[in-house]
Amino acid sequence: MVVAALALLLALVGTAIAGPGGSSTPVTKKQVKKIANSVVTGRAPELSVKSATSAQNAANAQNAANAQNAANLGGKPPSSFEETAFADYAGSNLTLSVDSSAPTTLNTLVLPGPVAYVVRANASMFNTGGPCGASFDIRRDDTSVAFNIVGSDVAGGFQSTYSAERLLNVTGSSATITVTGYRQFGTGSCVAYSRSLIAEQVDNATGAL
Question: How far is it, in rounded angstroms, from Cα 166 to Cα 138?
Fold first, then answer.
């Protein structure tokens, strides 16, 4: 009803309305606006806005509990998106231990979890003073997950390369990955150099240890 009244008033703009003495005066926009305001003000107590039944109220508008809260994104913790690759490199010469119970640490990485990584370890080695064979190990929290043996029975100066790769799970908040080595056979010194340990985060960890 109010809308109809306003429409009528707008239609009267410029129309002559008879005054008390019989004369007519055109109605201006300003006068129509004043009249319209009076009409709306007078009807205000009776007016109401129809409820937004089709707009779905806040309780049904996918609240925070159902919208993947800020603690996780796609089911993954924030740590999964902070960094995707880690590396430790050392180029200096390092003589390996001759004691298998106390191997030499070549490289170390502390990896955040829970997530899976492809871990790659590489090192070059030469021997001095006699033949030498070395055993290299990738360890996760001090447990062996991969190993390789390289070396030579040549008296000295022989160059060899150690390389290993493994798909590993870090199930807790973090895990320490180390590469260790020791002289397994021979009488010479095993010297490692250009040592690297690289870990790359992966989403698909089928077959991870």
Answer: 9
Q: In angstroms, what CA-CA distances link 20 with 23, 24, 80?
A: 7, 9, 83
The 3-state secondary structure of 110-154, one letter per residue:
EEECCEEEEEEEEEEEEEECCCEEEEEEEEECCEEEEEEEEEECC
- pLDDT greater at residue 19 or residue 121: 121
pTM over the 0.85 mark: no
Tell me the pLDDT tens digit for each residue of 1-60. Answer: 555 554 544 554 555 444 555 444 565 666 656 655 665 566 556 656 555 554 455 455
CB 170 within 8 A of CB 111: yes
The CA distances from residue 147 to 41, 158, 178, 182, in Å, are: 87, 21, 12, 12
Q: Which of 4-8, 87-91, 203-207 has the lowest mean pLDDT?
A: 4-8
Measured distance CA(4)–CA(111) in Å, rounded:
72
| Distance of alpha carbon 174 from alpha carbon 165, whole angstroms | 19
> Quick check: 94 and 191 in contact, CB under 8 A?
yes
Q: Which domains does the chain have, with CATH numbers?
A: 1-18+25-46 (no CATH), 80-202 (2.60.120.1340)
Q: How many other C-beta atoms are found inside a 10 Å radius of the C-beta of residue 181?
A: 27
